[in-house]
Input
Amino acid sequence: MTSRTLAPVLAGLLLGWSGTAAAQHDEFLQFSGQHNLATSTAFPAALGENGERLFINLPSLHVYGGSDFLQLGEAKEILDGGQIPAALVDGVLDRLDRRNYAFAGGEISPLAFGYQFRKKEKELFTLSMTWTEQAAAQLVFGEYLPRVAWEGNAPFAGTRLDLGPIEGNVFLRREFGIGAAFPILSEEKMSMRAGFRTKFFMSSAAAHVRPTQAELFTASDGSQIDYDLLIKAQLAGSSSPNPMAMNGSGVGIDFGTSLRWTNGLSFDVALNDLGYMRYGSKVVTRTFEGERVFEGFELDDPAAGIDKDDIGRFNDYFQTESTPGGSFRTSLGTRLQMRGSYALKAYDIKGRSYDQHAFHLAYVQGFGDAGNSTIQPIITGAYVYTVANVLELGATVGYAYKDVDAGAFFSVRGGPFRFGLGSGDITGLVLNSNKASADASMRMSMAF
Amino acid sequence: MYPAVPYGPPHTKRGRPAAKNPIKTIRMNNGMPTGRRSWTGTLLAAAAVLGLGSCQFAVDEITAPSWQPDILAPIAKSSMEIGDLSQLAVFDASTYVTATHFGVLPGVVGNDAQRRTGVNIGPYTFDWLEDIVGLDAGEATVRLKIKNELPVGVAEGARLVVRQSNTGQAVVSFDLKDDLAAFGRLVDSASFQNVAFVSGLEFWLEDLNVSPEQGEVIDPGMGMQIDAQVEITGIRSVDVASEASLNFSDTTELGIDLVEDLDQYSMDGEFRLKVSNGFPFGGRLTGIFLAADGVTPLDNLSPDPIEIAIPSVGGNGEAVESKETIISIPVDRSRLEMLQNAAFLGFDAEIYAPSSPDVLRANGSRSFDLQLIADFQFTINP
Output
């Protein structure tokens, strides 16, 4: 990667730690009770459960970034000091694990609608139409590739190193969703809903680095280096970026169910982003491959020495191929989301019931590392206090990427209008601690 | 071959000094990278900045620390087998045979000059390397070239015989395919499989049928120039007398253009020359780098003479197993600068055989392997 390419990536990631985003999933929409249409993007069955008839989501935003190896304080140290100290690099390397993550991304929801169809004031079903612009980047790499790059191969002589994984994905895509939710059971003490959302995607650009084979062995005496490399990257639309182009498309579905008990307990479960993206336009597949036991350049005449032509032959030991055309598929980032809640009810001055104290425990489990999803489990506990059915104050504590984080949000309603701000991980920003990620969310909506 | 350790054990890191100089600068303008950028980078930066709002940074450029990787890698290798010893592979013999050897006297060839049959001439000795007492090879090609200055023809049916000098035993022989005309030329050759020679080799030309041409004049001293050659390929073994030694000195021009590339790095470490000697001989090498005038010494190749150890030798004179010798050649900044100025490498070398057994055998199944390994800690400050 050239320095011109590397520079904005590095800068973007560093900026990500300094100001944006923690979890890849918006805690706000998981726990707020005021933005039902947004919440239904996480739990489809929740759509329309608040008794409102018309929903309009105004432009909203969620941005996030983070890693499980570079701490926020270190990122600030780099940005404040203008240099990367060697000790900092050593510290980061000591922290590396088998799989290390860096991610950044954002979602903008320009507009969304929902409407509840009723018969004799009783809900038949609720429909929604959503539009989301998504951008995400995720890099997964092993411990030994950066270590060898920084320390050289000599410290690892005698040990066969697995330099993988080397995985990554980046995408820009537009999501259009049509969702529906409906009651399927309504007992005296318990109700049950089901919901789904079908989604259609257009993507202007994507890059996908397939799981990589990369091994390195250096003999203890340096007499041979064995390597086995196969890196395959598939790119679509990267040569001439145009946000309006459609170089890939995809379909997906979210579905789930919710249970509500009159004693304040509730449980939601959803399987989201079940589907795939297919990129078939402006596709280039790049492979970098090499397998060899290298014992030095073979010299027919040792007295002639080694020259630049010999070094030039080193390129022959690797096959670099760039193949235009073809297509490739990627997962949408399928994940299971669950939420258990307990709420204490209260009544506002108009006599409407609302959850004054709500306690939540949520669990997100992805089935792959793909942009906005991860196989790293994310567990979050939340407490939400609602004042007079107007002001909602929430606090969250989560565990993700081997890191405990805390977040907070508020949302306020005035008539049909609701506005909220929140973050799933603000501790790093507030305490300048060793937190490794941050996120921020802004929601605006109307409901009638 | 090697234990598969998926995620290797903890290792000891070499100490390294604190950062000195930057190696890479990422220029930024108001927190955003400047210049052309990839869409992936733009995407990341945009996503970050969206949530960042109006954050300001104290610096507008980020510098990376100096980078000090420890590199351990093979650089070059070469393998020499006994079959590669081309200097052992060709033996020449050359002689000028006057007319009297064919029973013809100088002067005018009279009408009574008779044809002679069964004439043998020889022996004529091939050159031979001192201290080589035996050779075994997969193939030998014997060539014969005769330039006839005599008015004497040699009819078809003559034979060339190569014999061991000490025993007179014929090793190879072949019949000449053509006749040799008076004042004519003859070139012939034949190849033989699986041949073995001991020291001392000679050739004979036998069963010559000689026909003087009447009326022609033979001056005194006039004769035939005969050149013979034995070229051996696929040498399988070479026998050498004990305590034999071969000394040679030379000066070779250096073409180390890689040094120019290495000059931009600060490096400290050594080149390691790994020698694996499968032959029952030892060696000693002293090298000295010379300036462009070819005279001024700059530095020694190594602090001490390079010694190539002799492997253990069995009763049959063969090396029991290869003997490994590792020679360290320290290289640092000053030595790199010296190499840049060096134009020649002068060297004195000696190859010697041990004192016992009486005959040492270099076997074709063994080799003399050289491998150059680099072990350096670089400090990269471009």
User: Anything to note?
Assistant: Chain B has three helices and 24 strands. Confidence is low (pLDDT under 50) at residues 1-57 of chain B. The CA atoms of residues 24 and 64 of chain B lie 6 Å apart. The helical segments of chain B are 39-52, 258-262, 333-341.
